[in-house]
């Protein structure tokens, strides 16, 4: 049975180390990790979560966009595990958006991301996929891809004036 995992927070070295590729997707420990990540992202009101965020240094993340308490206007999609993902291309068009992170609790930051990306990845059954993603879902993927690369969204905030508390964000941005 899947369980909610503890989330590593900013300062933990696992968040600053590039993750390792997964060579055996069918390994029961990887399949269990996928199930646990799916449960964790759901219970924590995330829209994505990467394996390094739960102290597992693997190139694996879940994209699970849906409206919730942290992202009221998120589009709904089927939760998607992405294993050994590669971003093949990024649009030149950059879009600013407010990001939060389960590993950086209580903070939001304004981050520029490519509006459109093309991604190649394997699903939990080892099947390869290559797709184009846009807008909010593209932002989630880029955010989670940073996690498997040893980065957090704060590394992409251009100015400290573009940071605010989660509470202030919900007062000023969401309710505006």
CATH architecture tag: Alpha-Beta Complex
Query: Averaging pLDDT over every residue, what do you get?
Result: 95
Estimate percent helicity: 10-25%
Order of helices and strands: HEEEEEEEHEH
Give the radius of gyration: 15 Å
As for the CATH topology, it is: Peptide Deformylase
Count of domain modules: 1
Poorly predicted parts: none
Give the full name of the CATH homologous superfamily: Peptide deformylase
Termini, distance in Å?
Answer: 41 Å
- Derived from helix and strand composition plus strand pairing, the structural class reads alpha+beta
Global geometry: globular
Number of strands: 8
Proportion of strand residues: 25-35%
Strand count, sense and barrel status of the largest sheet are:
5 strands, antiparallel
Number of helices: 3
Task: Please give a quick description of this structure.
The protein is of the alpha+beta class and 176 residues long. The protein has helices at residues 28-43, 135-148, 166-174, and strands spanning 48-50, 60-63, 80-90, 94-101, 104-114, 116-122, 128-134, 163-165.
Description:
Its cofactor is Fe(2+). It is an enzyme of class 3 (hydrolase). Its EC number is 3.5.1.88. The chain has 176 residues and is of the alpha+beta class. It has a single domain (13-174), classed as Peptide deformylase (Peptide Deformylase). The chain has three helices and eight strands, in the order H-E-E-E-E-E-E-E-H-E-H. It has a five-stranded antiparallel sheet. A three-stranded antiparallel sheet has the order 4-5-8. It starts with 27 loop residues before the first helix and ends with a helix.
């Amino acid at each position: 049975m899947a369980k909610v995992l503890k989330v590593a927070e900013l300062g933990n070295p696992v968040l600053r180390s590039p993750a390792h590729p997964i060579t055996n997707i069918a390994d029961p420990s990887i399949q269990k990790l996928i199930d646990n990540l799916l449960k964790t992202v759901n219970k924590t009101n995330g829209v994505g979560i990467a394996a390094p965020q739960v102290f597992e240094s693997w190139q694996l993340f879940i994209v699970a966009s849906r409206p919730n308490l942290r992202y009221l206007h998120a589009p709904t999609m089927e939760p998607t595990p992405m294993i050994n993902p590669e971003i093949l291309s990024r649009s030149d068009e950059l879009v600013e958006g407010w990001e939060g992170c389960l590993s950086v609790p209580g903070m939001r930051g304004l981050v520029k991301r490519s509006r459109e990306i093309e991604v190649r990845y394997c699903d939990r059954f080892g099947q390869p996929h290559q797709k184009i993603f846009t807008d909010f879902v593209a932002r989630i993927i880029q955010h989670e891809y940073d996690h498997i690369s040893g980065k957090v969204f704060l590394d992409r905030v251009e100015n400290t004036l573009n940071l605010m508390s989660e509470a202030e964000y919900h007062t000023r941005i969401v309710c505006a």
